[in-house]
Amino acid sequence: MDKRQVTSKDIYEQVMPDGRIYGEIGPRDIKRFEDTAKHIHPDAESPLDVGCFGGHWLNFMCKHHTIKRHLGIDVAENRVDKAKQLFPERNFRVCSAEELDLPEKSFDIVTCLEVLEHIPDWLKVFHSLFRFAAKQVLITVPYREEIRYTVCVNCAKVTPIYGHLRSYCEDSFPQVPGWSLDFTKIADRNPDRPLFRKIYRFLRPRYSWILADYRPVP
Known about the structure:
The chain contains six helices and nine strands. With 218 residues, it is α/β, with parallel strands linked by helices.
């Protein structure tokens, strides 16, 4: 890779095309899906998942909720190809939220899970989410993460580990006219951890996510 500015799309398609840096979806991820799903609007029947990655979250929603129509989008073609292979019954498209050519309020709920922390101009993507949502915008990002850096083996530049560009807290999220905002913390839980590790995580919590729940003001 040359030394031009590296975008999220470049990272996913060139630097880590097989996704091994993130590993496979496991019990820890499923627990996070379950905790997030508790906050889905009860009347939401049509989700749009922005930054769908391998399609696991969209598939989870479709399996556990009454879904009549759905779509997952991602800027990386290889990620969408993988999602289509894993979940051929689901609908995926290579596209960014800013480029998606659909009518306003096309979906009941727009989700964007662990995506914004990877995007340089994250507010541009953030505001585009509200164009398609009729009932809810649901966002999760790591909470008060300490961003750590390493030297990239491809370009020899200093780069944040995991591709996380910034740390988020409640004050990071702007108010959106016409929408209310509530926050929830999602803990890092893994049912397969040994008991002593569960106790250690309870006493010394190391990682969590913040869920931003936007809904139209009545």
